[in-house]
Amino acid sequence: MKFARLGDAGHEIPVVLDGDRHLDLRPLTSDIDGDFLAGDPVGRTTAAIAAGELPELDGAGDLRIGAPIARPSAVVCIGMNYAAHAAESGSAPPPVPVVFLKTPNTVVGPNDTVTIPRGSEKTDWEVELGVVIGRRASYLDSPADAAAHIAGYVTANDLSERTFQLEVSGGQWSKGKCAPGFNPTGPWLVTPDEVDPQALQLRSFVNGEPRQDSSTADMIFPVDHIVWHLSQFLTLEPGDLVLTGTPQGVALSGRFPYLAPGDVVDIEIEGIGAQRQEFVAWEASR
């Protein structure tokens, strides 16, 4: 099942995709948020479709695509989770997951325009598989317990400003991760029954030229290990977003230029969906 949110920012309408139709979920929920995701969203939606309770949303194809989840309480990220990316960053593969945070207000629609931060010379792209939490996860006993706490998966672009992240960071990465619009998410939330999270192709392109091309099979720490590991140190709430790391092929490698105004980035994950962002210069009036 695929869930989405359509409409102007701050006024998105929750929908479920049914073939080529977008069915309005508002008879069930006001939004795709933690409460909805914790309350058997697939079962309730399936029953509502069968009962004819969800009307088709008129003009859905003309509406902006928002992030498929309402603002999460937390965005927790895993760094250097692909060995080749760690190598191109000048690091050895980490023995335990590297964790950093993005602020929830970085989560935007998959095709929204992104402003390059003021003074930035090293804005970078990172295609990533995102995990959406569906049930509170705290002190899970083992990675095998993780699946019961996952509502679904999303495509995400973990945008980064490398000077802020690495050179003026004070040792913490989040300065380079939290600029406005630095987490395009979507287009859909895809439920776990539809995909194998460890067998998905990830790709990115800049101005149509290929950059990243890898598989989630190459993760150092798989999804179930990540969710279990995080639960030992923090509580993941329904609706929270976990980003699982990016493969090789980013500008930080030195093989490609960083992003500049006018650049267009396309990213896609097999079965999860594609997104596109145009990058524009920062202006004082923004």
From TrEMBL:
GO terms for molecular function: hydrolase activity. The keyword Metal-binding applies. Pfam families: FAA_hydrolase (PF01557). Transmembrane segments: none annotated. Gene3D superfamilies: Fumarylacetoacetase-like, C-terminal domain. Keywords: Hydrolase, Metal-binding. It comes from the Bacteria. Coiled coil: none annotated. Residues 75-279 form the Fumarylacetoacetase-like C-terminal domain. Belongs to the FAH family. This is Fumarylacetoacetate hydrolase family protein. It comes from Microbacterium jejuense.
